[in-house]
Amino acid sequence: MSTFNGTYYQPPFFLLSGIPGLEASRIWISIPLGIMYVIAILGNSIVIHIMHKNPSLHEPQYVFLSLLAATDIGMAASTLPTVLNVFLLNHRRIEFHGCLAQMFFIHTFSSMESAILLAMAFDRFVAICNPLRYTVVLTHSRIIQMGLAAVAQGVALMAPLPILLKRLPFCKNIILTHSFCFHPDVMKLACASIRVNIIYGLALILCSFGVDSVFVVLSYTLILKTVLGIASGEGRLKALNTCVSHIVTVLIFYVPLIALALIHRIGKYHSPLPHVTMFNIFLFLTPVLNPLVYSVKTKQIRRALRRLFVLKVG
After folding, report:
1. In the chain, what is the greatest distance between 2 CA atoms, to the nearest angstrom?
2. CA distance linking residue 195 with residue 198, whole number of Å
3. CA–CA distance, 208 with 15 (Å, rounded to integer)
4. What is the pLDDT of residue 212?
5. Which residues of 181-214 are buried (b: 16+ CB within 10 A; e: fewer)?
6. Contact (Cβ atoms closer than 8 angstroms) between residue 174 and residue 14
7. Residue 141 and residue 239 in contact, taking contact as beta carbons nearer than 8 Å
8. Other C-beta atoms within 10 Å of 269: how many?
9. In this predicted structure, what is the pLDDT of residue 2?
10. pLDDT at 51
11. Distance between CA 103 and CA 163 in Å, rounded?
């Protein structure tokens, strides 16, 4: 542990927090959280297994769905150890470098998810607006390139975050707001100027989530324009139905993210409960709901699921 003027130091650990005001109910809270983690990891793993085992689901849109499921597993696994430690075991300590590592993975998987949602929007755009070129545009090699680009974006943009935090001196307060490590939450404990961290954090939001969301909206604007040009009502409904699952997934991801950004700006004037609750919704519900949405709304996945469980029971 290095000290600075006897007051500033790099702490050996941070103390994580549960949900403000509900500390006495942490055991009961751990039960639904544990169920959510099981659904997130098991549900997304089943989706990946189904995609791998069924040749009919090797189309581009399902490959992107497999990438989304893998990212959701990574996001859930990034928070699982500390969240269950806090709520189930009341073990609140997390080592300094372990905190930085967890923070990196949480932010990286979030950025990857945003990029994959953009790739899925592009897939729907090509399928509806230029269907004759679908197989030409979305080739196997191009899908791999898009997947690697999503990983590269997440790693490249988020790698500086631990470095920027490691250079900061910290005060005696080592209590974090969440049950996991989150960049804005860690940096506010620093005893030096965090202007660089704030500017870089804002740049990350604009370059990653901001740009991705703009292109997702643009894709669906063009899709809607094409759909409205279809003569028959049945044709319009069929075209839009292929986008329903992805639209719901986009809303599940971006609505809590936008709400979180707004709450974070005004959070210093209010109770931390809305901020903590909204960030938990963003991190926990996305991996849980995505496989459920696609299982309910996608006919091919429902059929594969039925075959899978019939074989298991048989």
Report:
1. 75
2. 5
3. 29
4. 92
5. bbbbbbbebbbeebeebeebbeebeeebbeebbe
6. yes
7. no
8. 6
9. 45
10. 87
11. 12
